[in-house]
Amino acid sequence: MIRTFKMQLTIALLSLTLAGTTAFVTKSLCPDYVGRWYQQSELGNHRPGIEKCVHTEYQAYPNGTLSVYNGAIGEDLEVQEICGLAFCPDEANPAQCQVLFPFNPIPGTYWVLDTDYENWAAVYSCTDVLGLVKAEFAWVLAREPVLSPELLATAFEAYTSRGIDITEFETTVHDDGCTYEKPDPTCADEL
């Protein structure tokens, strides 16, 4: 089986070379955005009653969509959750996705402005409302509950380099009272 794989890989690389295309191949996997992320800061998405411990999990489905699970601890110290589906309609722009939640029949934009996949991601959403005003949302996400100040600054650079004002971002609290376990059952079970 390994011999067959090596032969297929050799043929594929030879085909690319003969076609005039060069490929850079290393022994590793491509970066992956799925998994758990912890909200570090947000813009325009503050939900009353959602106080701290905001986190999200993305899981890939075989059809190319992603399940989106958002969890948090509310002011009543109960787990709050919301689930939806994400899809990226344009293969040429895989970082420009849309998210659909059950309470909103219109998908929202979800653009990953920049990420290193291992530590942080800068996500942005902006929708024109009747051509008069904009609804702007943004999230700084991290793979750990607390991101270092240096990496947080790097994530904010993704916004400022595009002229997006970061002065209104609100910091998300992650402390010893946080729990990141999903309730059973969870809204993700209904997707």
Automatic annotation (TrEMBL):
Belongs to the calycin superfamily. Lipocalin family. GO terms for molecular function: pigment binding. The keyword Disulfide bond applies. Residues 1-23 form the signal peptide. Pfam families: Lipocalin_2. One of its GO terms (cellular component) is cytoplasm. This is Lipocalin/cytosolic fatty-acid binding domain-containing protein. Residues 33-172 form the Lipocalin/cytosolic fatty-acid binding domain. It comes from the Eukaryota. InterPro entries: Calycin, Invtbrt_color, Lipocalin_ApoD, Lipocln_cytosolic_FA-bd_dom. GO terms for biological process: lipid metabolic process; response to reactive oxygen species. Coiled coil: none annotated. SUPFAM superfamilies: Lipocalins. Keywords: Disulfide bond, Signal.
